[in-house]
Amino acid sequence: MTDNIQPHDIETRPELLAEIIELSETSEDLSLLASRSAADIANVLESVTVPIRLAIIETIPVSQYWSVLNLLQYETARHIHASLSAERANERLACISESDVIAFADFLPSEFVDEFLLTQSSETAAHIQQALSYSDDKVGRYAEPCFLMANAKNSVGRIRNELLKRIDSPVKVIIVRDMTGIVGTVDPNTLLLQDDTTKLKHLAVASPLLEDTHDLDEISKQVSIDGSQVWFPVLTSGKVMGVLSMTTIALSLRELGLQAVVQESGKSEEDLFTPLKVAARLRGLWLVINLLTAFVASAVIGIFEGVVEQVVALAILMPVVASMGGIAGSQTLAVAIRGIALNHLHQSNLKMLVQKELKIAAMNGLVMGSVIGAIVYAVFGSIGLGLIIGCAIAVNSLAAALSGTLIPFTLKKFNIDPAVAGSVVLTTVTDVVGFLVFLSLGAVFLV
Hints:
The structure is a single chain. This protein has about 450 residues and is mainly alpha-helical. The chain has three domains: about 5-95, no CATH class; about 140-250, Roll (CBS-domain), CATH 3.10.580.10; about 275-445, Orthogonal Bundle (Tetracycline Repressor, domain 2). The protein is about 60% helix and about 5% strand. The chain contains 18 helices and six strands. A three-stranded mixed sheet has the order 1-2-3, with no helix packed on it. The protein has a three-stranded mixed sheet with strand order 4-5-6. Helix 16 runs antiparallel to helix 17 (about 385-415). The termini are far apart. Keywords: Magnesium, Membrane, Transmembrane, Transmembrane helix, Transport. It is a multi-pass membrane protein.
C-alpha cells in the first residue's frame, strides 16, 4: 500500500515541488509526475493549493489515485476527493480496492459502499462489513483475513500443499497453534528453505496477540519494529479474526505523528527529558527575551500616554486587540511549524501559504472586527470607538498572519527552534502592531 521512500527521493522533493509550482503558474504540462512514485506525488499534494492539487490529480494515472491517497494525511485525502467532479470521482471509484473502501469509507458515498458490497463475494462482503463495524482507530478495522491456521505438528510439505490450494486467496502469514493455544507465526516464504518433513513448531516465531478493540496507537507499543515480523494475529473473544500488517501500524504511527508539532530537524533545542539545568537555561533565555520585548510593547503604549488618559475606554480595550492578534497569529504559527516539521513548507511554496493565510486573516479579521466593534458601540455608545477597534483587529489579524507564517521559516533559516522561539517573536509583533494601530487611530479620531 505504500512505496519505499529512498533517501534520494526525499532530497529531491523540494526541487520537485518548486518545479511543479513553476509549471502550474505557467499553465504547462504536469505530465512529468506520471513517472514519479506515489510518495513523491503525495508529498507535493500536501504542499500546494487546491487548484494545483486538482491539476496534479488530473495528470496522474487513475490507477495510482488510491495509492497516493493512502500516503496523505486523512483530512488531505478527504478534501481532495471531495473536490473532484462527479465524473472524475466515479472514474476513480471504479478502481477502488477492498482495503481502500475500508480505509476511506467515512468519506465515500454510502450508496457506493452498498453497491460495492453487492459486487463482492459473500466472504469479501462479510469481511468489509465486519471491518466497518469498528471505528477507524481500532485494530479490528484493519485486520485482514489473509492467514492460515495450522497445527504445530503439521509438516512443511503438508502446509505447502495447503497453500497451493489457496492460490486465489494469498496467505500472508501462517498462525501456528497447539493444545495450549497460539505458539507463534511463520512467514510462508520461510517454507521455501525447509525440508518437507520439518515441523511447524520448529519454525514458529513468538508473536504478540492483538485485540480487535484496542486502539492502533496502543498496540504500536506491543509490536517489535526490528523487521522480524510483518503480520500479527488479531483476536476477537479469544479467536483469530484476521491479521494486522506492520505497514498499517506504521501508517497509524505516521498519522499520530502528523497530529503533533514535532521538529523535523534533529537540531531541536530541547527534547522531552533534557536535563533540568539545560532546559531551564534554554527556556530562561527566551523568557528574558520575552521580557525585553514586553517592554517594547509597553514603550509603544507610553508614547500614547496622553491619549490613554483622555480616553479611558482605550485602556480597557487594548487587551482585546492584543489578544485577538495573538490568537490569530498562534493558529498561523502552528500551521507553519507543522509544515516545516513535515517537510511540506519550502521556499517555493512559502508565497502560496502567505497568500492563503492573509486571505483567511482578512475574512476572520473583518468578521470579528465587525462583531467586536458592534459590541463596543453597544457598551460605550461610541460609533468612532467601535470603528477604531474593528479596524485595529482587522489590521492586527493581517500582521499576525504574515508574521505567523514568516517567523518560523526565518527562525529555521538561522537554526533556531521555531517551537520554542516562535511564540516570543509573534507576541511582540502582534502586541506592538495592535497597540500602535489602535492607539494611533484613537489619537487621531477621539482626541
